[in-house]
Amino acid sequence: QVQLVESGGGLVQPGGSLRLSCAASGSISGIINMGWYRQAPGTQREFLARITNNGTTNYADSVRGRFTISRDNAKNTVYLQMNNLKAEDTAVYYCQSMIRVVGSTSWSYYWGQGTQVTVSS
Predict the structure, then answer these.
(1) Is 112 exposed, middle or buried (CB count within 10 Å of its CB: 0-12, 13-18, 19+)?
(2) pLDDT tens across 9-23, in order?
(3) Residues 78, 70: contact at Cβ < 8 Å?
(4) pLDDT for the residue 22
(5) pLDDT above 90: residue 2
């Protein structure tokens, strides 16, 4: 059983910062990519950032320069440091990861439950 548990969401004022965490747990034998997505009400889920197991990162244009993705492989955890937050950043933020479980030779995608980020004055 694999779980991705997100934390760090909440209410923040415009221009503020927030740091999200997502910890993977369970019978995991390997993690390749970890990433962050978000979904505002009535919209499709939007890609934000991705990081490979060797540290290569990709960012959506909407967050590049403001958000930073990182990971701690020893803790099976990915982070999203969000700076200079704007009202349009308000959404549910989801963690995603490509994971191989113990005893398997294949890789599968897993999603966290989502954490609410609200940017408002």
Answers:
(1) buried
(2) 999 999 999 999 999
(3) yes
(4) 98
(5) yes
45 contacts: CB under 8 Å, gap ≥ 6: 37, 38, 39, 94
Phi-psi label, residue 8: left if phi above 0, alpha if psi -120 to 50, beta otherwise: left
Residue 69's pLDDT is 98
Name the residue with tokens 């113990």.
Answer: 102
Closest CA to 81 of 59, 113, 54, 111: 59
Among 69, 113, 109, which Cα is nearest to 94's?
Answer: 113
56 contact partners, CB below 8 Å, separation of at least 6? none
Task: Dump pLDDT digits (tens) for 38-53.
Answer: 999 999 999 999 999 9
- How many of the other CB atoms lie within 10 Å of CB of 120? 10
Average pLDDT, the chain: 96
**Cα separation, 22 vs 50, whole angstroms:** 13
